[in-house]
Amino acid sequence: MREDESPRAPIHPVILSGGSGTRLWPVSRSLYPKQLLPLAADNTMLQETARRFAGRAEYGPPLIVCNDAHRFIVAEQLRALDIVPQDILLEPVGRNTAPAVAAAALVLLETDPAALILVLPSDHVIGDTDAFHAAVAAGAAAARRGALVTFGIKPTAPETGYGYIRAGAEMDGASGCAWVERFVEKPDRDTAEGYLAEGGYFWNSGMFLFQAAAYLKELERLQPDMVAACRAAIAQGRRDLDFLRLDADAFAGAPSESVDYAVMEHTEAAAMVPADMGWSDVGSWSALWEIGAKDAAGNVAIGDVVSHETRDSYLRSDERLLTAVGVEDMVVVVTDDAVLVAAKDRVQEVRAIAERLKADNRDEVALHSTVYRPWGSYRGVDRGDRFQVKRIVVKPGGRLSLQKHHRRAEHWVVVSGTAKVTRGEDEIVLKENESTYIPLGVVHRLENIGKEPLQLIEVQSGDYLGEDDIVRLEDSYGRD
Question: Of 11, 113, 195, 408, which has the fewest CB atoms closer than 10 Å, so is most exposed?
Fold first, then answer.
């Protein structure tokens, strides 16, 4: 292998934000999943991942790959930290990590033919950032020599929820980096205990570092149809505001494979940096209990929680009072519209609940009571036969689409802020305690023309109140 890139060239972080986080239901939901939530810090997990590189000269701006449905939330969360991304790629359909990384690599190669990319999930916790950056520096030396580098986490327990990596011989010319001897699927407990006793095995973190060209070369050898589909998805894609929207038909043609399955387990160039960086993939409620601040009884309590003779449990309430008596090794999570109660050693099975809710077409699997839009948010307050009440918040400068409804009328009452309302041919300005009525079928639009958030109560009435009874005539955010 030869050195193809100057050591001073910046590393391009590629942050993958496409997951749905079903094992962390009911807090994580498909339209607002765990990486977009502040589960382990004040910032969201995506924000914590992106800010890991802020102010460090060895990295370029991050490139984000995310679900199309999350695009405005992702952009807003980066903006809140004053982070300007290299790009935001929109996946029209989930195809696992290998095609997502391939698309990112192809985009980065357009401006940097020697691009070195650091692939990171957006939902991991890194407790020791200095150790993280030291591991990346060690891996960069190997990646610049053509290796495809992954990061192995020093195991602290016989974990059966992770794949393992067996480290081989050390690499010449890349201190702290070893060749990968083999990848191992998630083991049973006895096997995992054997790995720890034997030594030389590491948890597979799902983080990677390699030259974009080297990754694509191996992927083209192993999965040529995948690379062809990604090339077509970019060539036929289009710019949409601040996003690069991959072509849906072309990208859907890519085989759905992870980077591990598609490349790492089959290449002779796989290398690993052993690392001890306080890592967790936050893949379950028990993982959040592991990293959470515990009281003297071993409980992690978040929100308004009162417990009595309760031990080693994870207790979380987003709004209302949660009380627990005599509970041990349990997970109890309360949101405003759902409650989860689970044995802590069975929280991996929460995914089955999410799948059942999806099969039953329940809104709770996808949406929170508060639904976020690029202009702000709305929240259901009450609902009955032929009516529902919503609390709407429009951020300064935000404007809803110019639209009409075939089957419902709406009353709007301004609680605070200043609204500009388009109603048919009329335009009116409403302030606090003022209201208007939008008859069925009338074209209308709501805008916040003030400097503070606009809050109003909307009362809908009609024989059908679904969100699909919206005919958009014009939209500032490019939505159909």
Answer: 113
Secondary structure (DSSP) of 128-192: -HHHHHHHHHHHHHHHTTT-EEEEEEPPSS--SSS-EEEEEEEPTTSTT-EEEEEEEPPP-HHHH
Specify whether 71 is located in the same domain as 49: yes
Q: What is the pLDDT of residues 402-448, one digit of tens each?
A: 999 999 999 999 999 999 999 999 999 999 999 999 999 999 999 99
pTM passes above 0.85 = yes
The 3-state secondary structure of 59-81 reads ECCCEEEEEHHHHHHHHHHHHHC
Q: Say if CB 23 and CB 284 are below 8 A apart.
A: yes
Pair (180, 207) in one structural domain: yes
Alpha helix (H) residue ranges in 26-70: 45-51
- DSSP label at 400? P
Could you tell me if 27 and 88 lie in one domain? yes
- Edge-to-edge order in the sheet of strand 408-416: 370-373, 376-384, 387-394, 454-462, 408-416, 435-438
CATH number at residue 374: 2.60.120.10
Check residue 321 and give its pLDDT.
Answer: 97
Q: Which pLDDT score is estimated for 175?
A: 87
Residue 337 to residue 27: CA distance in whole angstroms: 10
Neighbours of 358 (CB within 10 A): 15
In a domain? residue 289: yes
Please, are residues 151 and 135 in contact by the beta-carbon 8 Å criterion? yes
φ and ψ at 294, to 5 degrees? -105, 150
Max Cα distance, the chain (Å): 77
How many other C-beta atoms are found inside a 10 Å radius of the C-beta of residue 391?
16
In a domain, 360, yes or no: no
User: Running DSSP on this structure, what letter comes out for residue 328?
Assistant: B
pLDDT the model gives residue 6: 44
